[in-house]
C-alpha cells in the first residue's frame, strides 16, 4: 500500500470506544498521528487509550448536540489544532420500517447524520483558517444497497453522500478534503447493539461474517492518506459485488439480498 505517514497530524475519531473506531485509533497512531478518542463510555476509552500511543480522551455523546461547540474547542485545545475528523460513531437498526417508532428514527439520524454535520460546522472555521483539513465519513454499503429492517439506518448513511458530496464541492478552493468511506460488513458488535423498533438494543447476531476491523482500519488509513473522494472498505467480497450490481441492476440486487435473508 506504500508508505502511509500521519506524523504530526492530529486525528479526531468519534465512536473510538470499540469496533472500527478502536482499530482506526491503533492504525493512525502506528502511522505517527496524535489521536483524539471520543465516545460516551469513559471506561472503554481509558482501555483504548492505554494501548494507543499519543492519544487523548474527549468524552462526547453524539446525541448531546448542545455540547458540540465546546467539544470542538476542547478537541482543538488538546494538541493546538485538528487536521482530520473521522465521523465514525454510529448506531444500527434492526426493525421493520412499519414498526420503528418516530423517536428511534430520529435517534438514528441524530447519531449517524446530524452529529456529523453539526460537529463539522463548528470545526470548519478552524480548517478554513488553517487552509487544510480532511472530513472523513464512515458510511456503509447499506447506504447504497437495500436490506430489510434497516430503513432509517440506510437512509442516514445515504444522506451522508448527498450532504458531503455537496460540501466537498463547496470546499475545493479551501484545500479541505472530504473522504467518504463505504465499509462492507465488519466483524463488530454493531448489529448486536442496533436499535429495535422501540429503541431497545436488538441483541441480534450479524447475518454475515464480516471483515476484521484491523484489516478495514488499514484500508481506511490508506484512503484517508490518499485523500480519496470515496472508497470501499472490507473484504473483497459480496459487499463490493452487491454495490456494483445495485448500481447497474437494482432489481437483481434486491432479489439477491432477499434470498440471502431467507437463507439465514
Ligand atoms: N459493522 C459493520 O458491518 C459496518 C458496516 C458498514 C458501516 N459501519 C459503520 O462503522 C462505524 C463503526 O461501527 P462498528 O461496526 O465499529 O460498531 P461499534 O463497535 O458499535 O461502533 C460504533 C461506535 O459508535 C459509538 N456510538 C454509538 N452511539 C453513540 C452516541 N450516542 N454517542 C457517542 N458514541 C456513540 C459506539 O459507542 P457505544 O459503545 O457507547 O455505543 C461505538 O464506539 C459506524 O458508523 C457504522 O455504521 C459498520
From TrEMBL:
One of the Pfam families matching this protein, by short name: adh_short
Family annotation (InterPro entries): NAD(P)-bd_dom_sf, SDR_fam
Gene3D superfamilies listed in its UniProt record: NAD(P)-binding Rossmann-like Domain
Annotated GO MF terms: oxidoreductase activity
Source domain of life: Bacteria
One Gene Ontology cellular component: membrane
Keywords (A to Z) from UniProt: Oxidoreductase
Oxidoreductase as UniProt keyword: yes
Keyword Transferase: no
Family: Belongs to the short-chain dehydrogenases/reductases (SDR) family.
Protein name: Short-chain dehydrogenase
Organism: Isobaculum melis
Amino acid at each position: 500500500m506504500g508508505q502511509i505517514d500521519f506524523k504530526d497530524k492530529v486525528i479526531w475519531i468519534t465512536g473510538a470506544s470499540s469496533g472500527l473506531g478502536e482499530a482506526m485509533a491503533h492504525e493512525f497512531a502506528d502511522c505517527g498521528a496524535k489521536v483524539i478518542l471520543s465516545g460516551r463510555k469513559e471506561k472503554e476509552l481509558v482501555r483504548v487509550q492505554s494501548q494507543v500511543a499519543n492519544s487523548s480522551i474527549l468524552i462526547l455523546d453524539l446525541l448531546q448536540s448542545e455540547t458540540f461547540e465546546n467539544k470542538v474547542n476542547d478537541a482543538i485545545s488538546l494538541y493546538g489544532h485538528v487536521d482530520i475528523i473521522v465521523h465514525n460513531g454510529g448506531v444500527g437498526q434492526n426493525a421493520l420500517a412499519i414498526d420503528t417508532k418516530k423517536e428511534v428514527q430520529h435517534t438514528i439520524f441524530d447519531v449517524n447524520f446530524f452529529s456529523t454535520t453539526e460537529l463539522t460546522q463548528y470545526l470548519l472555521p478552524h480548517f478554513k483558517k488553517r487552509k487544510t483539513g480532511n472530513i472523513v465519513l464512515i458510511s456503509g454499503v447499506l447506504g447504497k444497497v437495500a436490506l430489510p429492517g434497516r430503513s432509517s439506518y440506510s437512509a442516514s448513511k445515504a444522506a451522508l453522500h448527498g450532504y458531503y458530496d455537496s460540501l466537498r464541492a463547496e470546499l475545493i478552493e479551501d484545500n479541505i478534503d472530504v473522504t467518504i468511506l463505504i465499509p462492507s460488513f465488519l466483524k463488530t458488535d454493531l448489529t448486536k447493539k442496533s436499535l429495535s423498533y422501540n429503541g431497545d438494543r436488538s441483541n441480534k447476531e450479524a447475518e454475515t461474517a464480516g471483515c476484521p476491523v484491523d484489516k478495514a482500519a488499514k484500508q481506511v488509513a490508506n484512503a484517508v492518506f490518499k485523500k480519496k473522494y470515496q472508497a470501499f472498505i472490507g473484504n473483497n467480497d459480496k459487499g463490493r459485488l452487491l454495490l456494483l450490481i445495485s448500481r447497474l441492476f437494482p432489481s437483481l440486487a434486491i432479489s439477491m439480498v432477499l434470498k440471502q435473508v431467507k437463507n439465514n
